[in-house]
Design brief:
3-stranded antiparallel beta sheet; 5 helices; 102 residues; alpha+beta; elongated; single chain
Length: 102
C-alpha cells in the first residue's frame, strides 16, 4: 500500500491561481486569452503559471491556428487522488496501531 504523496505536484497545485487554472481546465480546453478573462490575472503572470503546470506535467498544450490551447492531464490528477486514497486507507488502519512509549 502506497502511503506517500507526490509532493512536487502538491506544491505546484498549492498556488491559488494554479489551482484555479486546473479547475477551469477540468471543464474545458482553454487558451491563454480565455484564462485571462476567467481569472483576471495578467497575461505574463498567467503564462508563468502555465509554464510551471506544463513542466510539472499537469497540463499539456495543443496548437490551434495562432493560439495555444491548454488541457488538463486527468491521469495526473487521478494518480494524485489515488495516492490520497491510499493515505486515507493507511490512516484508517493506523487508528488501530499505537506505538508504546519507552
Amino acid at each position: 500500500m502506497m502511503t506517500s504523496v507526490d509532493t512536487e505536484t502538491i506544491r505546484v497545485l498549492g498556488d491559488p491561481l494554479r489551482l484555479q487554472i486546473v479547475t477551469l481546465l477540468a471543464r474545458e480546453m482553454l487558451c491563454t486569452t480565455h484564462l485571462v478573462e476567467e481569472t483576471g490575472a495578467k497575461q505574463t503572470n498567467l503564462s508563468n503559471h502555465l509554464k510551471v503546470l506544463r513542466e510539472a506535467g499537469v497540463v499539456e498544450t495543443e496548437p490551434c491556428g495562432r493560439y495555444i490551447y491548454y488541457k488538463l492531464r486527468p491521469d495526473v490528477i487521478a494518480q494524485l487522488a489515488g495516492q490520497f486514497a491510499d493515505l486515507a486507507e493507511s490512516a484508517r488502519t493506523a487508528a488501530e496501531n499505537k506505538r508504546a512509549c519507552p
